[in-house]
Amino acid sequence: MISDEHYMQQALKEARKAFDLGEVPIGAVVVAGGTIIGRGHNQVELLNDCTAHAEMIALTAAFNYMGAKYLPDATLYVTLEPCFMCAGALYWSKIGRIVYGAADEKNGYRRVAGDRSPFHPKTQIVTGLYAEEALQLVKTFFASRRPG
After folding, report:
1. Cβ atoms of 13 and 2 closer than 8 Å
2. Nearest Cα to Cα of residue 99 among 18, 27, 33
3. Which region holds residue 59: left if phi is over 0, alpha if psi is between -120 and 50, else beta?
4. How far apart, in whole angstroms, are the C-alpha atoms of residue 99 and residue 129?
5. Does 81 qualify as catalytic in the annotation?
6. 14, 55, 81, 132: which is the annotated catalytic residue?
């Protein structure tokens, strides 16, 4: 079986795509049975849609791939802690696992939910995988947009 590290590297590739497109660099992949069934990176600016987060795009692709609205045997790998909107979608998806890189102090689900998990009770959470790389990508993105 391929490791969590491998799939988080795939999510980081998606985040770099977003960066190159001028989007906040967050990437996500959904994996089931050792296969990537959904990929996404932020496309908020491209689509002019505030809901076009990496997680939402990857989930939609995974639902379409599986032909199902629930993903209890799947894992989402995402470079940054999901926001509360994405946490709601993940709750309804009944996803089996969520692996995320860096915490998001400003917009992450924990800012709203605190210590109470907003995810399905059976969802397992793993945090901190490639957190430094994910956070550095976001910091570089925002630093490049600030005037001198």
Report:
1. no
2. 27
3. alpha
4. 7
5. no
6. 55
Q: If DSSP states are collapsed to H, E and C, what string results for the chain?
A: CCCHHHHHHHHHHHHHHHHHCCCCCCEEEEEECCEEEEEEECCHHHHCCCCCCHHHHHHHHHHHHHCCCCCCCEEEEEEECCEHHHHHHHHHHCCCEEEEEECCCCCEHHHHHCCCCCCCCCCEEEECCCHHHHHHHHHHHHHCCCCC
User: Along the 148 residues of the chain, how does pLDDT read in single tens digits?
Assistant: 689 999 999 999 999 999 999 999 999 999 999 999 999 999 999 999 999 999 999 999 999 999 999 999 999 999 999 999 999 999 999 999 999 999 998 999 988 887 788 999 999 999 999 999 999 999 999 998 876 6
- The pair of structure tokens assigned to 109 is 């689900």
